[in-house]
Amino acid sequence: MSPRDVVITGIGLVSSLGEGNDAHWEKVTADHPLPVIDAERFAPFTVHPLPQIDWNLQIAKRGDQRQMETWQRLGTYTAGLALDDAGMKGDESLCATMDMIVAAGGGERDQEVDEGILAASLDTNDRTVLLNQKLMTDLRPTLFLAQLSNLLAGNISIVHKVTGSSRTFMGEEGAGVAAVETAAARIRSGQSSHALVGGAFQTEHPDMLLAYQLGGRLQQGPWQPVWNRDPSQGGGVFTGSGGAFLVLESREHAEGRGARVHARIEEVVSARARRSDGALEAGLRAMAAGLSDKDGTRLALSGASGVHDATAAEKRALESRFALRGLTTLTGHLKEAQFPFAVALAALAVARGEAYPPFDPSEPAFAGDPRTVLATSVGSTHFEGMALISAA
After folding, report:
1. Which of 316, 318, 305 is nearest to 383 (CA)?
2. What is the pLDDT confidence band of residue 145, given thresholds at 50, 70 and 90?
3. What is the radius of gyration, based on Cα positions, of the chain?
């Protein structure tokens, strides 16, 4: 043990399965875990929707709620759950010195404005004049400001008074990996004593689905588990709305305030392997082999996106040494929140000393106490990351 061990003292989770650690634990440890899906609103695409949330529980001021988009409210709410779980909520001295690293997207577009511009463009040949008119009327500066990715961190600072250093990463799954990796590295080096880390993704907005479909990544047709999606029905991704935040501390800092510790982050590794000629599979094998726990079969919480080639490569690379659990089967693809979510579920398994059952019939059983669990996220187009989570 070292005073600078990176430990997880707070976990906040929201997904289609519910909100909070206990609700998620109950759903994912059921004998036959079942996803919550909506196949109607965005047909022919299926999403994993948000549950009903009382935003007042974590965002007390209605004014704060009104000026946030849903994804910002979701992230701010989930961050509050993590702070509550860590026993830091409302502690001004701890929150004022807490660093924050957020994985965020670019915000939600104004659908009515977009549709109005497209409709008007059908009736004119001078689209330059049209766009100039729209810039002076419909496209307000405040509209763009509301879409800035770093406003999620700003809202968390305002609502929860987390006012240490702040960083925001963009880049889909890679942003979540970089956020956790950077926070852990800062704590190990002594640059930070405690940090709030995580992200949120709201898929129930047409432009979010459009971005995936323009890349040919969305799956159509009936819902299927992440490991068994039919390539003839699309790109493999069923998206989900959700958020995951973690409170990370140095062991010394956590023990100094008498905090409960869920688990320890032993290592976080990341890479950008080529997605051709078997390079991704080889890279994932090397990443797993380089982690400190090299012996025996271990449990792994996989954030596989569902994209066919990348998901198949991850399964081939890891299935001989790990009992894989595809969390995306239950939550949908959570984009920036994918890796923090996998780390959070891995930490809960370690803390409670119980393995997750198979999330679908193709996954193998796992017997024994999961004192070490691997968390993964392999990006749908690039970036892959792994974290080894162990008992504290």
Report:
1. 305
2. low
3. 21
- pLDDT value of position 120: 79
SS (H, E, C) the chain: CCCCCEEEEEEEEEECCEECHHHHHHHHCCCCCCCCCECCCCCCECEECCCCCCHHHCCCCHHHHHCCCHHHHHHHHHHHHHHHHHCCCCCHHHHHCCEEEEECCCCCCCHHHHHHHHHHHCCCCCHHHHHHHHHHCCCCHHHHHCCCCCHHHHHHHHHHCCCCCEEEECCCHHHHHHHHHHHHHHHHHCCCCEEEEEEEECCCCHHHHHHHHHCCCEEECCCCCCCCCCHHHECCECEECEEEEEEEEEHHHHHHCCCCCCEEEEEEEEECCCCCCCHHHHHHHHHHHHCCCCCCCEEEEECCCCCHHHHHHHHHHHCCCEEEEECHHHHCECHHHHHHHHHHHHHHHHHHCCCCCCCCCCCCCCCCCCCEEEEEEECCCCCEEEEEEECC
Judged against a pLDDT cut of 90, whether residue 377 lies above it is answered with: yes
> Alpha-carbon distance 318 to 297, whole Å?
10
- Judge if pTM exceeds 0.85: yes
Q: pLDDT value at position 137?
A: 77
* 190 Cβ contact list (under 8 Å, min separation 6): 4, 250
pLDDT in tens, 241-268: 999 999 999 999 999 999 999 999 999 9
How far apart, in whole angstroms, are the C-alpha atoms of residue 223 and residue 40? 12
Give dist(CA 389, CA 348) in Å, integer.
10
Report how far residue 175's alpha carbon sits from residue 305's, in angstroms, rounded to the nearest whole number: 14
Q: What is the pLDDT of residues 84-128, one digit of tens each?
A: 999 999 999 999 999 999 999 876 666 677 777 778 788 888 888
Give the model's pLDDT for residue 134.
Answer: 77
Give the β-pairing of 6-15 and 18-19: antiparallel
Position of tokens 């047909």? 43
Task: Name residue 10's beta-bridge partners.
Answer: 247
301-332: per-residue pLDDT in tens? 999 999 999 999 999 999 999 999 999 999 99
